[in-house]
Structure formats: structure tokens, C-alpha cells
Amino acid sequence: MSAGQPPLDSPEIRRLTPVLAPGYSYTTVTDKISAIVLTRPTSFGWFAGFGIAFSLMGMMTIAIGWLITKGTGIWGINIPIGWGFAIVNFVWWIGIGHAGTLISAILFLLNQQWRTSINRFAEAMTLFAVACAGIFPLIHTGRPWMAFYMFPYPSTMGLWPQFRSPLIWDVFAVSTYGTVSLLFWFVGLIPDLATLRDRSKTKAKQIIYGMLAMGWRGSAHHWHNYQSAYLLLAGLATPLVLSVHTVVSFDFAIAIVPGWHTTIFPPYFVAGAIYSGFAMVLTIAIPLRKAYGLEDFITMRHLDNMAKVMLATGLIVAYGYFFEFFMALYSGNKFDVYLVRQRLHGPYAPFYYALILCNILTPQLLWLYKIRHNVAVLFVMSIVVNIGMWLERFVIVVISLTRDFMPSAWGRYSPTFWDWATFIGTIGMFVTLIFLFVRVLPAISIAEMRELVAERSEENE
Amino acid sequence: MEQHSHIYGVMGEFETGEQLIQAAKKTREAGYRRVDAYAPYPVEGLSEALRLHRSWVPLITLLGGLAGGLGGFGLQYWASAITYPLNIGGRPLNSWPAFVPVTFELTILGASLSAVLGMLGLNRLPQPHHAVFNVPRFTHASTDRFFICIQARDKKFHLAETARFLQGLDAHHVSEVSDD
Q: Which chain B positions have a beta carbon within 8 Å of A161's beta carbon?
């Protein structure tokens, strides 16, 4: 591309917006990304943001401490609504955790170059989201110190988990997902940790990064096995990421509760997960590139592509909503029909309409090129979608449970202060972890950026 | 072959991945076998230039996946049908369709763990120290420079000649790598 700014909306330029701004070499790419961790002073903004997030995390600790002291009675749950905020938030967080592995694994297999500068922090986001998600079912058990009962271990009681229960499938799916995401993320980090080790100026940093890099030398033998392992991990993580939200949807779909017992749940949950995950990646990417001046690495092309993925998965989600609706009416099952009426006219109808507004109507603006290239609007939109996806889980969990088969089993649900404190607290924990991650590890894969530079220079020759 | 007890090998530095591949090919052609190349990113074609044999990682991963899958199904079968049978309305104890999700997850878990541990094991990592780190300029191997190291245990190795050979390949900063 020539010097000077060409008009952004000419069609030729649209196609040419690069995934890496021109003029970068191995050295400058490495310098720029590793400087965030190694040399740049920690800004006031970092401390302020971290302080707020960490305080919220403290609130979560208090809320959980109080929960352990008093029991789940401090929450708004009661029979018949045993699954309140805990499950809503669990599904929401797990959904958010899907984009990281999708970007790293599926886009890697599809050879999409634009994944390169966003995969690292998207994977970190996945890990942190899964950590937040994991808290909820654990504390929802009421006796979290007995949670090890869910794992198959040879107990003196001769007791084994009920492997026919979707809740046990969930334990395996989520813990496998957490483990494999961690492995994938760590394997990707090894060469970068070696870079940080070699560029650190202080002894302490050299030792810490050196231990984490495990003696990586970047030898041809290393890369040979490494690439093989990375490709295999991508291939393994791809079906895994699709299976995790499928299993989460089984928690609902295997039950006979109206509004849950549908076959469309697995694909529609997976699409929703990717939808909310990409929304969260945008929510993080936009401030991150601004704060650290990474506009050359996370270019408009990335934001544009992520917006398109959001639009596409949003439409799949809309299709899911429509078919939930249609199947209820078409089946003529009076409980399902009643549930649809409850969604449209019941006490929680405002949540349903807000959900349609956030998840289906607003994202249609993403069809417009100007909207996809307006960073501020995109940021707001990503938050709207996050809220919409949370509302979706609220609608699914609460409306079905409050309007079961028999009027004697009907009820109402409203969260208490402690529900909110725990939920907002996990958001604090998530943001705290993101802040720490950005400060101590390279938020963009340096080795892969060098590979991108190499590919670029070959293309130009 | 001379004895250089304190020498690990001779190292030369290159500026681009392309030069590295050419140099690796010529080193092989010259008859050197104990050779390793170092690059800050996976250079395409480098494994072929050095004629590395196929990686064992896929086989290890397959075995790990099979172990995970069989172990996972076996665990569920054993728990549900043998050691802790629950008769629920006369339904079959070996209700295998219900065992599919956990079997699947454990297959992935077994395969992924073996892929990563296999990769680390084959690369002999973690390894706190290695002779190549004794070369001061080697810190650039993780940033922007490419290296070839011919090891002293190669049959054809001769300190001066091998160093001259690397210089002949247009390597910069040809240096000996001490072993301590």
C-alpha cells in the first residue's frame, strides 16, 4: 500500500486492509509486543482499572464467604426455582469462554491469518471465563467442600458418580475444556516466554520467564515437534469446543421441563456461545489496542471480521429463537404453547423483549460497513450483545422453572443482593485476571507475528 | 575426528530464514549429521532441509487418545454395570449411549495431554541449561536471528575447518560453543 491514508470505504481498500500494518520486521514486532511487558512503565490507568476490578473481586470473595457461612438461602433461589443466577451466570461465562478456542483452533485449521494477533488474549479470556464459570456450579452445590464427590474416585463408601446424568457430563466437559484450553494457551506461549527470557534485563525476570520457557531454544527439532503438537491440539480442540456447549445444553435439553426439552438446543447453544465469545473478544480488544497502541497489529480488518462472525452467529441464534417458538406452536403441546405465551406476556416478558432487542435487532446494524468500522459503536454493540446473551440464559432458566407443568409448582424468582454481588464479583475477577495477564505475558503471540512478517516478505518478493 | 572435551560445537549466524534453509541444506550435503538450526519462528522447509525424521508426536497423541477413550468408557462401564449397579426401572446397566459424552471428553483429554507431554518429552524439555546459551549472541535466536550449530560429536567435525565451512556459507559471527 502506498503512503498516505486512502479513503477507507473504497472497495479495493476494503479488501486490502491488512492484518498487519506494513513496515514491520522481526525485530520491531518483537520489540513492540514485548515492551508492553518488559519495559513500558505501568500506567496510572492500569492501576486504576486493576484497583476497581480487584475491589469487585474482593466483593465476590465476601459474597462467597457469606454463602459458605449461611448456605444458599442467601440467594433468591427456592423450590421450584432451584437454578437461579448461579446457572444463568455459569452458562453465560462458559459461552464467553468459547471464542478463544474457536479463534485459536478452528481459524488455525482454516488457515485464517487474521487470527494471529487476537488468538493469545482470546485464549487467555477463555481461561479466565472458564474459571469464572467454574465457580458457580461449585458454590451452587451448597457444600462446595464436597464437590469432589462429582469426580470418579475409589471412595470407601463404594459410591460412584451417575454417569447417565448430564450434570456429570458437564463436570467432564468443563474440566476437560479448562485443561485443554490451558494446554493450548501454554504451548502457544512457550516460544514467547523464551523471547521474554532472552530480552529481560533483570535477574528475577530472567529466572521467572526462563523457568516458564523450560529451556526452549527454538531449534529445528523443537519446532518440528512443536508444530505437530500445535496442529494436533487445534484439531482436538475443534470438536471439543463444539462439544462443551452441547453438553451444557444437555443440562437443559435432557430434562422434560417445557422450553428446555428441544433438539435445537445443542446447535443453538453453540452458536450463542460463539456469539457472546466474539462479543467479549471485541469488548477486550477495543480498549486493549487503544491503551497499548496496538492498532497496527489488531487492525480494522480484525474488528471487521469479528463483527461479521458476530452477525452470522447472531443470525443462527435468531433462527434458534424462531424455531423454539415455531416448534412449540407446531407441536401443539399445551405446556410448550403456554411457555411461549409466558415469554411474550408473562411476568418476565420485559426480559424476553430486551433479549430480542439486544440479540436480534441491534446486531442487524452490523450489516453496514460504516458501523463495523466505527470502533466506538462496535464497542457498545459488543456490550449490548453480552447483555443480550445473559438475558437469554435468564429467560431460559427462570421462565421455564417458574411455569412448570402444574400451577401448584409455579413460582417467582428474583435475585438478592448476594446474587448480584457474586455475579458482579466474577466480572471483577475476570477483569482482574485480564489486567494481570496483559501486564506479565505477551497479549499477542510474538512468534506467530514473526511468522506473519516472514510470510508478508515472501509475498512481496 | 579430534577430541574437544570442552567444546559443544561451532555456531554461525544468519539473517533470514531463506539463508538458513540454504545453509542447512549445504551443511547436510557437506556430510555433517549432528546439526541443529535455530529460528525465532517455525521456518517452512527447515525440517526438510535438515532431513528430520517424521515427528513421533502424532503417534503418541493417537495412543493417548485411545487410552483416554477406552479408559473413559471402561470406567463408566465398570462403575455403572459392575461395581455400583443401579436398577432403575429395569433399564440396561450398560446404557452406552449415555456414556458417549464422557468417553468423548476423556478421549480429547488423553490425546491433548499426550500431545503436549509428548512434545515436551521429545524436545527434552524442561531443560534448564544448554550449551548453545553460552553464545552471547544466541539471545537473538528468539527475536530476529537464525543460527546453525554443528556439534563437536559429529564425525566430520574439525574446529577450524568447520568454522571455515560455516564462514563459507556467509554466516556472520561464527563462534565456538563451549560446553561448560
A: 79
